[in-house]
């Protein structure tokens, strides 16, 4: 029997509050579409200021499983006006929906959502039984925040965790360790739940090339290094190009494909033209099928400065594509050197090029690479663990045999 007292319709009511998109948005999409509708009634308050094409395309399907409430005041930047409005919106929904469970996603939503529970008279007044939080990389981990601003973020995380949070789900062990270093709360209140994706078939290499419009552009049999990521500062795309330039200087038969868009795209194209590699580097732009066309690649490259738990690497594993990635939190829990890829230091293009060339020269079996996905990163595993916490039943963690809250 569940530890939660169910409503009259027999369902547990779950309120999800979300500001960020990207991996955070995808995680929420998977939760909404994957949780059992016979057990859970879901409402989602989501920020619209950073909505991406993936989330926008997913909204109609999500609306079949949850009541979706847009909130233009859930914004990333610090704005007292927007934050007060968002707080009022969330508090009103809590009063009206009376959720059993509140689950906040991203740092900003984590503050707003948990503050709304407190300011609305506390959990007892609102009927909230459990409060969960998934940061998807803490704000204080971002390199652009330092000094006073970083210290404020740490204090907010401590207060919200200690006063109102039952459990924080970290998407990587590195993220969990970051919380413990800052003494956010009791270590027992943090659990690693890896992002997972569905085990769907991916197209053949030839079909993926055709979908990308590169059949006939890239010669048959030419080695392909690929990236499926937003071209933004976090992904360090200029270092990625420095890696690519060195790889091409050593292996001129190599072609490189970038799937994704972002503010660095024009600068990257100029770099390619200036360094004579424009005929070897192809920009495919944003694609809704990015997770599937990864099968066109021989090696997947990611040069992130920091990560939570990048979906793109998991997608590469599912397709059996070995990974060359920076040795940073999140990446280092997906990549198993010598098994499914190799790591290199952040911001080191020479080391990155050496890794890419080594993976091209010594291919890893696709089945071996894919096996690491099946063992750790399926969406069913992720959903089972989170749903278990929502319900409040005991569960054995089959990765280490320890008993955890379910």
Jot down its keywords.
406 residues; alpha/beta; Rossmann fold; seven-stranded parallel sheet; 15 strands; 42% helix; disordered C terminus; glycosyltransferase; transferase; Glyco_trans_4-like_N
Structure description:
By secondary structure, the protein is α/β, with parallel strands linked by helices. The protein has 2 domains: 12-196 and 378-404, Glycogen Phosphorylase B (Rossmann fold, 3-Layer(aba) Sandwich); 205-376, Rossmann fold. 42% of the residues lie in helices and 17% in strands. The strands form 3 sheets. Strands 3-2-1-4-5-6-7 form a 7-stranded parallel β-sheet, sandwiched between helices. A 6-stranded parallel β-sheet has the order 10-9-8-11-12-13, with helices on both faces. Strands 14-15 form a two-stranded antiparallel ribbon. Strand 2, helix 2 (53-63) and strand 3 (66-71) form a beta-alpha-beta unit. Residues 1-6 and 398-406 have low confidence and may be disordered. This is Glycosyltransferase. InterPro entries: Glyco_trans_1, Glyco_trans_4-like_N. Residues 21-198 form the Glycosyltransferase subfamily 4-like N-terminal domain. It holds the Pfam family Glycos_transf_1.
């Amino acid at each position: 029997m569940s530890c939660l007292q169910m409503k009259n319709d027999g369902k547990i009511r779950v309120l999800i509050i979300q500001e960020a998109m990207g991996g955070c948005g995808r995680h929420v999409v998977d939760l909404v579409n994957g949780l059992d509708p016979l057990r859970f009634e879901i409402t989602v308050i989501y920020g619209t200021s950073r909505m991406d094409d993936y989330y926008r395309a997913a909204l109609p399907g999500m609306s079949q499983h949850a009541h979706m409430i847009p909130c233009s005041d859930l914004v990333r930047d610090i704005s007292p006006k927007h934050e007060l409005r968002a707080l009022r919106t969330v508090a009103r929904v809590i009063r009206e929906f009376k959720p059993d469970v509140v689950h906040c996603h991203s740092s900003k939503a984590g503050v707003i959502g948990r503050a709304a529970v407190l300011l609305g008279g506390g959990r007892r007044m609102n009927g909230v039984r459990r409060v969960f939080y998934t940061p998807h990389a803490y704000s204080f981990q971002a390199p652009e925040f330092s000094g006073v601003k970083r210290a404020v973020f740490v204090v907010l995380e401590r207060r919200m965790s200690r006063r109102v949070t039952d459990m924080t789900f970290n998407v990587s062990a590195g993220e969990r360790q970051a919380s413990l270093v800052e003494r956010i709360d009791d270590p027992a209140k943090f659990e690693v739940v890896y992002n997972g994706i569905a085990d769907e078939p991916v197209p053949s290499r030839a079909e993926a090339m055709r979908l990308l419009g590169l059949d006939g552009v890239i010669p048959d049999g030419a080695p392909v290094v690929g990236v499926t990521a937003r071209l933004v500062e976090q992904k360090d795309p200029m270092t990625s190009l420095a890696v690519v330039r060195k790889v091409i200087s050593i292996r001129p038969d190599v072609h490189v494909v970038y799937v994704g868009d972002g503010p660095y795209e024009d600068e990257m194209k100029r770099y390619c033209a200036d360094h004579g590699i424009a005929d070897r580097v192809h920009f495919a732009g944003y694609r809704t099928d990015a997770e599937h066309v990864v099968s066109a690649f021989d090696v997947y490259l990611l040069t992130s400065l920091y990560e939570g738990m990048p979906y793109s690497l998991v997608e590469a594993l599912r397709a059996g594509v070995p990974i060359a990635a920076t040795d940073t939190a999140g990446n280092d829990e997906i990549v198993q050197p010598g098994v499914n890829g190799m790591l290199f230091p952040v911001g080191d293009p020479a080391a990155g090029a050496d890794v890419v060339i080594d993976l091209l020269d010594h291919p890893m079996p696709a089945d071996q690479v894919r096996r690491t996905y099946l063992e750790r990163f399926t969406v069913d595993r992720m959903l089972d663990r989170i749903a278990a916490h929502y319900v409040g039943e005991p569960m054995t963690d089959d990765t280490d045999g320890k008993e955890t809250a379910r």
